[in-house]
Every structure is written in structure tokens, then in C-alpha cells.
Automatic annotation (TrEMBL), chain A:
InterPro entries the UniProt entry points to: ABC_urea-bd_UrtA, Peripla_BP_I
Naturally occurring in which organism (per UniProt): Breoghania corrubedonensis
Alphabetized CDD domains for the sequence: PBP1_FmdD-like
NCBIfam families in alphabetical order: urea_ABC_UrtA (TIGR03407)
Alphabetized Pfam families for the sequence: Peripla_BP_5 (PF13433)
Protein name: Amino acid/amide ABC transporter substrate-binding protein (HAAT family)
UniProtKB/TrEMBL annotation, chain B:
Transmembrane segment boundaries: 254-281, 313-333, 345-363, 396-420, 441-460, 480-504, 511-529
InterPro entries per record: ABC_transp_permease, ABC_UrtB_bac, BCAA_transport_permease
Name recorded for this polypeptide: Amino acid/amide ABC transporter membrane protein 1 (HAAT family)
Molecular function GO terms recorded: transmembrane transporter activity
The keyword Protease is annotated on this UniProt entry: no
N-terminal signal peptide: 1-27
Cell compartments where the protein resides: Cell membrane
Family the UniProt entry places it in: Belongs to the binding-protein-dependent transport system permease family. LivHM subfamily.
An annotated GO cellular component: plasma membrane
Record carries keyword Cell division: no
GO terms for biological process, alphabetical: amino acid transport
Organism: Breoghania corrubedonensis
Amino acid sequence: MATGIATGMNRLRRTIGGAAVAGMMATSITAGFTTGAAAQEETIKVGILHSLSGTMAISETTLKDAMLMLIEEQNKKGGLLGKKLEPVVVDPASDWPLFAEKARELISVDKVAAVFGCWTSVSRKSVLPVFEELDSILFYPVQYEGEESQRNVFYTGAAPNQQAIPAVDYLMNEEGVKRWVLAGTDYVYPRTTNKILEAYLKSKGVADEDIMINYTPFGHSDWQTIVSDIKTFGSAGKKTAVVSTINGDANVPFYKELANQGIKAEDIPVVAFSVGEEELAGLDTSPLVGHLAAWNYFQSVDTDANAEFIDAWHAFTKDEERVTNDPMEAHYIGFNMWVKAVEKAGTTDPDAVIDAMVGVSVPNLTGGYSTMMPNHHITKPVLIGEIQDDGQFQTVYETSGLVPGDAWSDFLPDSKDLISDWRAPMSCGNFNVATGKCGGKGE
Amino acid sequence: MLQIRSFVFALLIAVSALAGLSAPVLAQNQSDLRSLINELAKGRYDDTERQIEAIAATGEEAAVPALQALGSNDLMARKSDGAVFIVKKKSGGYQLIDPLTGDVAGEAGRRDMERIKINNRLRRAIQSALGELTLMSKNPDRRRQAAEQVFKARDTEAIETIDAALDAETDPGIATLLREARAAAVLNSDASEADKIAAVGVIKARGDQEARAILAATADSSANSGQTALHDAATRAQSHVEQILAAWNAAQNVWYGLSLGSVLLLAAIGLAITFGVMGVINMAHGEMVMIGAYTTFMVQEVIRNSAPWLFDASLAIALPLAFLIAGAVGVALERFVIRFLYGRPLETLLATWGISLILQQAVRTIFGANNREVGTPSWMSGLTEVGGLTITYNRLAIIIFSLVVFGVLITVLKSTRFGLYTRAVTQNRRMASSMGIRTPWVDAMTFGLGSGIAGIAGVALSQIDNVSPNLGQSYIIDSFMVVVFGGVGNLWGTLVGAMTLGVVNKFLEPYAGAVLAKILLLVFIILFIQKRPRGLFALKGRAVEA
């Protein structure tokens, strides 16, 4: 290092090419492990496609554990069709193209009967063509922006009408909110959701100047300006609320800044669609009491099924502190639906199972039944909860009945005429009722 | 003499008679209040809200503990008879406390009690009720808080209570608050236009965001009801307040910029040593920051479990530990990896990147992928307002802390023997070696110092960011940006670079949005580097070309 000072810059330039190489190496290092202890007897393999490293590991690792637990429990009950289930776990490492590769590996090399996985919309979009081409089944457990219905995918998370719209309705009716901040991370889910919400709010007579839309980069950590903007926006003499589609990691600094600047839920409530029990686990929630979240499940839901599920989860993870959350419930519902459909079809053949899935009804954890609909979305109740000082949510509102998931939003001009029905004879994910033809916008 | 005695006697009788009379009256109120409190548990949110208003209307300060307990979720109803108690958690159940007298009233199992649920609307109602009930409190802090709550609530029925409190108020500060609260309530009522215009003046004098909110609402409502004089007054007052706010806004942006700059400085300053002074491209720098943050978490975890009273000192305890641990990791890194790669920047970059991934995954395996909770000591929570400036204590602490770290580092490098060695080795290794300096030792220690400083930065950053395995990644790019922009090899450049980037970013953000602001900043730096490849403060002389 004799050359010493001030040569770093030149080196940095010379090494830009090296960075790309390093990136490729990094992914191949972290990507390569698969738990595939080949069993002696014949088993039914179930693929688990969740990131165990990289940025999304924070959310997805839990779902992998939840799936392992569900499979273990099913095996205790005697397996499926007289065979044991065998989980095949792969790590797509929060790398979107790798999701497609790993999905292909699961289907064609490991020959799994179905795959449970993905979190971000971009990872789902990246695996869609693979599932279509190799004709397999994907269960997608996370709330998403809608505007999609694919034959090989079952969406067990919430569509916008099962989360965003009821939340906005609640704020409008119960809290009398007249001014809206739509704050989100800059990617497809917040952008589409906000587009839908903006159209919806305008249809309810909210003026342009009463809507403020704000996007921030992934992992944004300096929220001072935005929080103070929200404060200013909220001081126009009308009740104001924030609708947050801010993604996982950026939430903690956002809520910390809210608390720091003294914005209480009584003044400007924040309703979030991506903040659940897991995300709150890294936070002191006492300054956040009263901020809201809209989900289809809370750990605090008081039913026997839920108590049983939580006990099983604690026993499986050997940790009494582990929380449960909405996407876990979605996997619970999805997995049980798949089991039921396979039993109904008597085979794990994807085509037969896909046909058998529609109409399957299984208990959810909130004390009712969820049914798979022809558009491959499910019926769910919508719950609005307020954050409590113990990091849990308290339900303050629940839809009176189940809300069926709507794949194509009625509030976007591009999709309002589209419906989806995968039953014969229609068998179409984007049927345009105006033109009477299959194939409008979307794939 | 006799007269006086008989007078005293008569007075005594009168007093005792009064006392005798008032005792049942008090008891009467008590039982009324108790039934009102018991009613809280019945019905839906709307019914509870009406009950809270009814309790506020009694004006009984005795109801305050019950309302406070309701607000903090500690008010529960006994399932067997519907009686309402303040509860304290204890193992296996609750201790019951009478809501009016504060006496212990037995115990109950967890299944025997039902929490009275509240939502945001009820929380607001409770705040305003508490405000009204404690306006006459003897404690001035409590009165000040009450006045602020009443100001926020804008409850027209509270005007009489406020008037009474104003008459009794001796503290001029609280009296001003009360007058503002009264004005806010008057503007919400159907008082005469003249009264309202007077109230507009009071609110205008307040001149902050809340004042703007009230004036905007008044301007709206008066336009609808055709009160033109009031509308004019409110609109004029509103624009006046907005002018004041705009001026403060610029100052606020500078503050935010300095605050962001101090975070950048903290993250980059360790890198300024390892990259700037030693010339090692250390991609694992961010992970040293992460190690510091996790050290803070571990320290707090130990304190929570064994010595909770030490919590406020947790950061002070974590600082030296974070420095030592991150420093030790840095020394190990230098000894086992980097020293074999000196003069080969490409390999160094790849190797340190690999190490950063290994460290991340190691932390993920040990602590789990989830965020870990790092608490904020009480002295770092909250905010103060200086004029129209909002200054949060944690940001203030970080600004001061970053400057202190910078000062200490400069001193170490300029005025200690170790600093002299470091500079000598980096400027001319052979010469330093011939003078008897153990250059490998200096390399290891300098790298350890840079890493240790990164660890200290981690302690501070744990206060504002996620403590997760990804913590380091979000700072590595920014750190390189600051060091390159400021001028490689110059600590002062790092300081000025960090603060400049912080302030520029914060001035761009309100106009361009956070995403575009970041892009613009990068474009700006690229252009700047084209013009001045060696950064803001370029080193001159032979050393540069060596």
C-alpha cells in the first residue's frame, strides 16, 4: 500500500467492471442450497420458494417456517393420498430473475406437485411464465395490487378491494377524514394501489388538492422532510389521514420519525397495508398506539382455530415470542385448499387440481370459511386494527360478511370491464364484458 | 369578649352543619360518577363517547384517573357484575383498583375481566375530557397540558370552563394558551361575527401550523355562511401565518439537511480512514456499522433483563463496546485478508464484498432475519420547538455526536504518535519503515480504527434506522459518495462533503420528491467529479502522484 493517499478514485473507476463480476458471484454463492434429502418411500413433493437471504429474507423466512409447520402437521394426520408430503426448500435470495430459475428447478428437476412462494409482485411476475410453460401451480400468499389473474396461480392474499378500499371507507366514515396522503415506496404495488385509491377517492367527491401522493425509494431512511410535509398538509383545517403502502424495511424509520415529530394517531392516523405483527416486532410501539393497519387476519383475533394455530406455531418454532401474521394465514388457507382439492381430484396432476380448486371451501383463522372463486382469488373478511403498545393489533372494525377478491379493479378505466373466470367454458383470466372477447389488458 | 366567643361558637356550628350537609352531597356525586364510569363499559364506541362527554360535563376531577386508565387501556369491566375497575397486570390475572378512591379492591383472573375497547375517536374524546377536567389543577404542568388539549379539542361547550380557568390563572404563559383555546372554541361556535373576528386575531398571533389549520377552516366556513368580514379577516390572517411558516420552513430545511449530513458523516467517517487514508476499497464497511448496531441491541437486551434502571445509559455503555468489537473484526479482516491484497484493488473489492455477504448471513443466522428492537433512551425522545423550528432530540444528539467523533478523530490523527505513524506510513511506506515504524502493525491498527468508528456510527444509526442484517448495505453507497465527493484522503473534505450533500438533498426533496432528489444528487456528483476528479478538497503535492 505504498502508493497511499488519493489514488482510490482511479481504482474505483478501474474496478467498476469488477463490481459486476462480484455481483454475479454473490448470487451464485447464496443461491445454492436445497433441502432435498431423498426419502426412500414415494412422497409428494411441495416446493417452497421464499427468499432466505437478501432484503426480503426479513419477511419471507417466516413463511418458509410456516409452510414447513403446515406440511409437518399434515404428515402427522397421515399425509395426502396415503403418501407423505416432502417439502423442497430453495432460496431465491431476493433476486427476481433467480426466482424464475429456482421455480423451473423446483418443477422440472424436483417434480414438485405445487409451489408455495413469492412475496413481492416483481418476483411473482418473474415466475409467471415458468408456471404457465411447465403447467404447475403457485400459491401466492401476499396482498397485492390486483390487475392479474392467471390460470396456474392462486392468489390467497388480499386484492385491493379486500384491503385498501375498506380501509379508506373506514377512515372516511368513522374518523371523518377529508384529506388524504397516499405515501408509498416507488414500485408497482404502491403505484397501482394508489392509482386505484385515487380514482376511488375522486369518485367519492374528494378534490384534487385534498390528495397528496408521495413516493420514496426502497429502504428510505430519512423521513424528516416527508413527515414534516405531511404535518403541513394536515394543517389545512380538514381531518387528514395517511394511507401507507410503504414497503417493509422503510417503515421502522418512518414510524420512528412520526413519533419523534409528535404526530399522534389522534391527530393524523396512518393506515398501513404492509405493516403487520412481524414488522412491529422491531419497534417500540407505545408512541404508535392508534395507528391502523388493514388485513384479513390479526394474531389478536380471538377464535379457537387461531389459538390452536398460534400454539402450534410456538411449539414448532420453540419460541413463545414469535408472532403470526396475515400472509401466514394465507398460506394456511392456501395449503388446506390444495390438500382438499388434491383429495377431491384424487391426484396431484396440476390440470385436475386446478379444476378441482374452484369452489373449495376451508376454515380460515378468523372464525369463518374462505372459498376459492373462479377468478382464483378467495373470499375473506376485512379487519381494521389499531396498533397497541404490546405490538399487537386490536380489531376496531370488521366487514359484516366475507369480501370476494376482485382481480380487476372497477375503479381503473383499463380494467373496469374485465372479469376473470377459469371454469369451462369461459376459461379466461381477462374476459372483456364490453367487447365480449377474452383478452383485454393484461396477460 | 363574650360576644366574640359566642361568634366563634356560632361559626363552628355553622361550619359543622355545612360539613354535615356537604358529606351526603359529595357521596351523591360519587355514586353518580361511579354509575357514569360503569356505563363506559356498555354499548358501542358511540355510546362510550357520549359517556365520556357526560363525565367531562360533571367537572369532577375525581374522574381523571379513570379516564386516564381508559386512555391507556387499563380500564376493565368485571364480567360478573359489570363493575368497572382500573387494573394492574400481575401474574395470572389482574389487581383491581377502585376507579374513584384509588383503593385496592381485590383481584381477578384474566378470564373474568373484559377490557373496555377504545379507538382513535374515543382517544380524542378522552384527551379533550381530561383537558376540561384538569384545567383548574394545582400542578401548572398539568394545567398547561390541559390547555393544549382543550385547544385541540375546540369544544364549544368548554368555553365557560375555560373562562373560569382564565379568571383563576396566574401563569401568563398558560393564560395565553387558554385565551388561544377559547378563541379556537369560539371560532367553532355560533358566536357573533365580531367575537369571531376578535378570536381570529388571537389565533393569528399564535402563528403556527395549528393556527393555520384553524384559520383555514374558519375561512372556509365563513365563506359558506356569507360572513364576508370574518372571511376577509380569516383569509388575511391565514396568509400572514403562511408567510411566517414559509420563512421558518427554509430554516427547517437547513436543519434537516444538517441532520442528514451528520448521518452521512457518521457513516462515511470510518470509510474516510480505510478508503480515504489507507486506499482500501472496503465493501464490508457497512457491515461494521451493522455490527455496531447489533452490539447496541445486545447491550440493551442484557440491560433489560438484568438492570432495567441502567437503560438510559445503554448507549453510553454500547459505544466503547461497539468500537472494540467492530475494531476487532476490522483488525482481523486486515490481518487475515486485506494485507495479502494491498496494491490489488480489484481483488480487495471482491474479497471485502464476499466478506460483507458472509457477515450479513452470519448475523441473519444468529439473530434471525427480522428487525431487532433497539429502544430510545428517554433523554433522546421528544422534541423542542425553537420559534417555528421543530428540533427532535435524537437528531440533535446525532449531530452533536457526529461532530464530537469527527473532532476526536482529527485530534488522534494530528496530535498523537499513532496518528503520526499512520500519516507517515500512508504517505511513504518505505521511508517510514526505514525510520523504524512497524508498518504492518500500523496498517492493522489504522484499519481497526476505521472499523471501530464505523461501529460507533452503528450505535447512533440504531436510533433512527432498522437494526437488521441489511442495515449496512443502505449506507455503503452513500459513504463512498461522500468520501469521493469530499476528496479522498482528507477528513475535512468528508465533513464538508457530508453536510453539503445533506443540505442539497433536503432542499431538493420538497420540490423534486425523494426519488428524483436522490437521482439529481447522483447526477450532480458525477458532473462534479468530471470537473474536479479529486473531490472538493484535493490533496496537492508529490504524495498524490506517488
